[in-house]
Amino acid sequence: MNNKQQHTNLIKTEAKRLGFLSCGISKAEFLEAEAPRLENYLNKNMHGEMQYMENHFDKRLDPTKLVENSKSVISLLLNYYPSETQNKESFKLSKYAYGTDYHFVIKNRLKTLLNFIQYEIGDVHGRAFVDSAPVLDKAWAAKSGLGWIGKHSNLITQQVGSFYFIAELIIDLELEYDTITTDHCGSCTKCIDACPTQAIIEPYVVDGSKCISYFTIELKENIPSSFKGKFEDWMFGCDICQDVCPWNRFSKAHAEPLFNPHPELLSMSKKEWNEITEDVFRKIFKDSAVKRTKFSGLKRNINFLNE
After folding, report:
1. Are 197 and 230 in contact (CB under 8 A)?
2. Is 191 annotated for ligand binding?
3. Reduced to 3 states, what is the DSSP secondary structure of residue 148?
4. Which of 66, 161, 235, 288 has the highest count of CB atoms within 10 angstroms of its CB?
């Protein structure tokens, strides 16, 4: 076994020990196939008010511009599928936001993995990325053989579906690279048919500016009245396209205590959400990604659902 193989095996074994669902590795190089897609997405204003998507175009496509002399992109998946979901007669929250904000949970593990690589292998430099820098997570995960990008533009894995977070370590160490997997969406259009705002404008193309997640999280202004009655009670994020995906019948509950929801969250009724105070909001969403929309944003979303 050569050094590259040894190092690769070592990293993948440690990633598993740290609780990651899977680990795939690809060569750090320019994402040629993604460049025209990203350009088209931005030109057609499918990112809406998400101005940050326009920044660092080159860095989004080329990891060597993010990490000097980088050789490998290590992609990691972390399961967040819950064992229990909200009361059915409630305003809904995307499952990824039930527990502690994933940025904190994953960043700590990535740092642990990077420290392990440096301790075991030596002088290795790199950076950890969790959805907070110009990195095309899904493209790298697909390139690393962890799944394929489905018609709803989320990464899907045959064995576990799509309810997981994606993160990366970009390092200056050459490793063994994984091969791309095949697409298994076939003729299925369940996600396209189920989207109430018709955000999936064609297979594999989502107009972000029409997505319920965009309206309830990213949009800071008022939600356009033309979308009234189309949100199906989603007050933060939306899981519809994932919930209807046949591959998610293979989803298994995560084993991460930090992703468990605040005890009150799952049982809250619409009446309780309508009457939520800022103190209750702070208590339930103390370390949650929901804090991103703030109390005022969540209230705006709930009021919109009531109109």
Report:
1. yes
2. yes
3. strand
4. 235
Q: How confident is the model at residue 34 (pLDDT cuts 50, 70, 90)?
A: confident
**Residue 294 backbone class (left: φ over 0; alpha: ψ -120 to 50; beta: rest):** left
Classified as helix, coil or strand, 131 is: coil
| DSSP for 231-300, written as a single string | STTEEE---HHHHT-GGGGG------GGGSPPTTGGG--HHHHHT--HHHHHHHTTTSGGGGGHHHHHHH
Of 58, 123, 131, 137, the catalytic one is 131
Q: Is 166 annotated as a binding residue?
A: yes
Nearest-angstrom CA–CA distance, 280 and 271:
14
Beta pairing class for 22-27 and 72-79: antiparallel
pLDDT for position 4 = 94
Which of 68, 71, 64 lies closest to 30, judged by CA? 64
Residue 177 three-state SS: coil
H or E element in which residue 102 lies: helix 102-121
Residue 239 marked ligand-binding: yes
What pLDDT, in 10s, does the model give residues 170-187?
A: 999 999 999 999 999 999
Q: Is 217 annotated as a binding residue?
A: no
Q: Which residues does residue 109 pair with via DSSP β-bridges, in sequence order?
A: none
Q: How do 234-236 and 92-93 pair as beta strands?
A: parallel
User: Does residue 19 sit in helix, strand or coil?
Assistant: coil
131 has catalytic annotation: yes
Q: Which two tokens stand for residue 157?
A: 């894995």
Give the CA dihedral 110, 113, 117, 123, nearest 10 degrees. Answer: 40
Q: Flag whether 23 is marked binding.
A: no
SS3 (DSSP) at 78: strand
Q: By the 8 A CB rule, do 272 and 255 touch?
A: no
CB burial of residue 190 (10 Å; 0-12, 13-18, 19+): middle
> Domain segments of the chain: what residues?
1-307
pTM listed for this prediction: 0.94
